[in-house]
Amino acid sequence: MSLLAVRDVSKRFGGVKALAGVTFTIEPGQVLGIIGPNGAGKTTLLNCISGLTRADAGDIRWEEQSISGMPPYRIARLGIGRTFQIVRPFPSMTVRENTAMGALFGRPDGRLQPGAALKEADEVLNLVGLGEKRHHTVLRLTVPDRKRLEVARALAMRPRLLLLDEVMAGLNSVEVEQALTMVRRVQEQGVTIVLIEHVMKVIVGVCSQALVLNFGRTLVEGPPAEVLNDPRVIEAYLGERYARRQKPPPDRSPNGEGNEKT
Ligand SMILES: Nc1ncnc2c1ncn2[C@@H]1O[C@H](COP(=O)(O)OP(=O)(O)OP(=O)(O)O)[C@@H](O)[C@H]1O
Ligand SMILES: [Mg+2]
Known about the structure:
By secondary structure, the protein is α/β, with parallel strands linked by helices.
């Protein structure tokens, strides 16, 4: 049985078709990478799964139970945790307190006592590598640490499925490596992961499956190495990104360069 099944999901914002009939499943233990150009509908897809946005059509099932139209807090309590592309912690609270909020309010097993929530926070902060900074206020954190905090807050809800929206954006290559280690550790805890990333090293480094969205539709889905070498993906996404970064001479074929991006 799939953990999550997204069937023919569509979402329109005014004249913009953000999602135009997306179908895929997430299997337990998988790390699914979602890539695609800006505006392809990636964040909208996560928003539909986590209940923040209601799809216009289609169905989303969690272990065969429809969660379409459920409020976000109920979806979170079923075991679906997420981070946000725009990081928004409580700025005056410490890292530990911020993380404990997840444990206090998002748990499938009901509310924890504050002491237990703080203990839980310490555990997930160690997991994401923020243990030593747990008493810092959020204002003092660097960008990569804020991203780690986002992951910790989501993990404190003990999700079975974790949705990560560009948690590695803006990180340097050393920080990306550290973040990859973090994702692997989370996966080893038995958490299934969906991550949106523009960093191809991440998709190849941790994902068991990759899905490319383009104009709200699935362009290609499959093993990351295959997907990143697919001519359609290179044309719609990688070629353009590569051209912007590297400016290759016009006579050079983009083929074979496609998996070198970022
Ligand atoms: N709340 C909204 N109101 C109006 N339009 C929206 C809203 N949310 C998303 N859109 C539009 O829907 C389309 C898909 O946006 P979405 O944020 O899902 O893309 P994305 O793939 O996450 O892009 P990015 O890589 O830039 O994060 C875009 O054209 C966007 O402008
Ligand atoms: Mg987005």
